[in-house]
Design a protein that fits this description.
Layout lengths: L2 E5 L3 H13 L3 E5 L2 H9 L6 E5 L7 H10 L8 E5 L4 H10 L3 E4 L4 H11 L4
Parallel strand pairs: 1-2, 1-3, 3-4, 4-5
Helix pairs in contact: 2-3
């Protein structure tokens, strides 16, 4: 299936998301902040989709999205923001940075799989 990068500083969220996506047949790579995500991308990871939290140490989700969008190979990679934030301004800021979608945290397994499927490039 697809390669998915998950970035979140909450280990329980990362573990849950990774388990759901792995069981669905996806290859999952994880990181605890945007800086780790950028390191993975710089090292050649080419995920089909990225899930990122907004509030993380070192590099938050908005900064990560901006940086990822600067690289030609990741310019059009779907990036879905995972957040407990309900502030519309944060959504607007994420969209302006280049986010493709938004999921409220923690997503239900079926909701997560549905949204991921919607954003993955069809084969």
């Amino acid at each position: 299936m697809a390669s998915i990068l998950i970035l979140d500083d909450q280990a329980a969220i990362v573990m849950t998301l990774a388990q759901i996506l792995s069981k669905a047949g996806h290859d999952v790579t994880t990181g605890s902040n945007g800086r780790e995500g950028m390191t993975e991308l710089s090292n050649g990871l080419k995920p089909s989709l990225i899930l990122t939290d907004l509030n993380m140490p070192e590099m938050d989700g908005i900064a990560f999205i901006r940086e990822a969008r600067k690289t030609p190979v990741h310019k059009f990679t779907p990036i879905i923001v995972l957040s407990g934030e309900s502030d519309g301004r944060k959504r607007d800021e994420a969209r302006a940075a280049g986010a493709s979608g938004w999921l409220t945290k923690p997503p239900q397994p079926n909701q997560l799989l549905y949204v991921v499927k919607q954003f993955l490039p069809s084969k």
